[in-house]
Amino acid sequence: MIQGNNRGKIKQPPAAEVIKYVIEPSISAEEAERSFQNYVQCNKAHVLMLEKQGIIKTDVAAKILEVAEEMTAMGDTPSFPLRPELEEMYFNMENYLISKVGIEVGGQQHTARSRNDLYATVCRMDVRKLYLEICRLYNEMRKTIETVARNNTDAVMAGYTHLQPSEPITFAQYCSAILNGMSRDYTRIENAWNQLNLCPLGGGSMGSTTWSIDRNFTSDLLGFNAPLGNSIDAVGSRDYILEILSAFGIAANTFTRLCQDLYVWATPDYGYVEVADEVAVCSSIMPQKKNPWTLEHVKGKSSNVEGCCVAAWMVMKNTPYTHNNESSGEGPTLLWTAFNEMKACIELLNVTFRGIKLNKKLMVQTATNNFCTMAELANTLVRADGISFRTAHDIVAHVVNHMLEHNKKASEIDVAVIAPIAKNLFGIDTKVTNEQIQLGLDPVKNAYSKNSLGGSAPEEVVRQLDELHLGIQENEKIVEQRYGQLNDAKERTEAKIQELFARSK
Fold first, then answer.
1. Domain containing residue 236: CATH number
2. CATH no. for residue 412?
3. Would the pTM count as exceeding 0.85?
4. 41, part of any domain
5. Fumarate lyase N-terminal domain spans which residues (predicted)?
6. Number of domains the chain is built from
7. From start to end of 267-418, where are the E strands?
């Protein structure tokens, strides 16, 4: 039996299409698992505030809160059915409350409150839970990449620009570069908390309330940093969704660039890296194939994240700056999809890096012969002959052409090749020795000698990783503090409920 009239002046029930596309999604099992307990927490904080302010009596508050405690014990989803004829989650919960205590008691729960500020508050609480989970997983993934980097400071390879051999680096330095980008990405995600964790409750439908409420009290009991300072803004703002999605989109872009590099390096033509069997798939027809499955899926899912960001902007633009079902109802749906895809990206990257294998011998062999040490060979001529770098650059360019024309490898360059070219181009009698040339051509010595800030020398990369590690530790500390803030708020709420129960007897 439905308790009370939830449709006001409207006489006809919702159309079947409205039930199918609007109401049923709002009371789905997924929605209940995400929101049910947050509705309960909002109700608890609101009722405690109403009693504290003398708006409802202590015995009324106690009866309402007894049912709220019963709902808490139900877990993530309610034990009573969520019925579409009641339109949505809150009316189903209110109907259950009224069925237990009657409309004159249960009907007082919604005093000084609208569904608009309630929805806005629950949505932020729903987002907080998923947001903090993403933060935890993101930090775990970064630590996995850091571990791989620390284990491979000796993995010398050719670096690439324009997908052409550039200069010798180490795989650890490359990982450090990715981790630096991820650190900035995480900072953007972390900073979104400041806009997310603000409390709309008490904003009413949009015009506040004539009741003497205490919004700081409810904000604190729900673990928010502070109430939103304007009632229209409280129910109308969803900019935190755009901020989180924007941060996710930028982070996802870093994922795609990382995956693209690994994707190329995993081809047999390069052969630098191999993904574990657990994250690969064979062809149904070509038995030689080992496709890096997770890398492709992360790239695709990252695009979905960025698509959600664009879609949310389109949903929310040109909407009135107040409560409406475009920005308030449809806008957050993009965020749930983005959270799911972001979580998948992070966990797939984590498992991929945990099992990644490097062919260090092939990396060095390729770097020895693909002319990636030519910049250092030019530096060698500058030091040996006292010439400008531009002069040395021109000499080495002609040396490379000579070697390619004669089908020779970079490691075969010697004085006999360099001397006539230097003489013919600039009249220089080079003083460089074969020993100096071979030193300049050695990719390992080249990479290991770059110990300036940000370089590829193992000790410098370890310094970079140590600095990044401290940053991750600080990020993890903040995440746990935020979890603690929410847990402490729940404990304070429960303590106040028990104190109210004691006063009501």
1. 1.20.200.10
2. 1.10.40
3. yes
4. yes
5. 49-307
6. 3
7. 273-274, 357-358
Give the helix/strand (H/E) hosting 313: helix 293-316
| Axis crossing angle, helix 293-316 with helix 239-265, rounded to the nearest 10 | 160
34 Cβ contact list (under 8 Å, min separation 6): 126, 129, 130, 336
In a domain, 495, yes or no: no
Backbone phi and psi for residue 291, each to the nearest 5 degrees, phi listed first: -80, 130
The pLDDT > 70 percentage for the chain reads: 98
Q: What pLDDT does 287 receive?
A: 78
**Angle subtended at Cα 246 by Cα 471 and Cα 255, rounded to the nearest 5 degrees:** 60
Residues present in the chain in total: 505
Q: Which two tokens stand for residue 396?
A: 């080495």
Query: Is residue 505 over pLDDT 90?
Result: no
Question: Within a 10 A sphere around the Cβ of 329, how many other Cβ atoms?
Answer: 17
Contact 66, 40 (CB under 8 A): no
User: Do 208 and 321 have their domain in common?
Assistant: yes
Contact (Cβ atoms closer than 8 angstroms) between residue 232 and residue 206: yes
**pLDDT: is 153 or 283 the higher one?**
153
223: containing domain: 130-152+164-359+462-470
Query: CA-to-CA distance for 318 and 233, rounded, in angstroms?
Result: 16
Same domain? 89 vs 147: no
Q: State the DSSP H helix or E strand holding residue 487, giving kind and residue range, or none if neither.
A: helix 458-504
Measured CA distances, 475 to 184, 241, 319, 348 (Å): 12, 21, 35, 21
Q: Is residue 191 part of a domain?
A: yes
For 213-222, b where at least 16 C-beta lie within 10 A, e where not — what string? Answer: bbbebbbbbb
Identify the three-state secondary structure at position 160. strand
Q: Residue 366 falls within a domain, yes or no?
A: no
CA 182/CA 325 separation, integer angstroms: 35
Tokens 């920005």 correspond to what residue? 327
Same domain flag for 384 and 296: no
Q: Are 239 and 200 in contact (CB under 8 A)?
A: no
Considering the domain architecture, whether residues 407 and 341 belong to the same structural domain is answered as no
* Rounded CA separation 400/453 (Å): 30
**CA distance linking residue 166 with residue 331, whole number of Å:** 45
Tens digits of per-residue pLDDT, 361-413? 999 999 999 999 999 999 999 999 999 999 999 999 999 999 999 999 999 99
Instruction: Indicate whether 294 and 320 sit together in one domain.
Output: yes
How confident is residue 473, by pLDDT bands cut at 50, 70 and 90?
very high
Which tens digit of pLDDT belongs to each residue from 244-282?
999 999 999 999 999 999 999 999 999 999 998 898 877
Q: Is the pLDDT of residue 288 over 80?
A: no
Are 186 and 101 part of one and the same domain?
no
CA 473 vs CA 7, 51, 174, 466, 469: distances in Å: 51, 42, 21, 11, 6
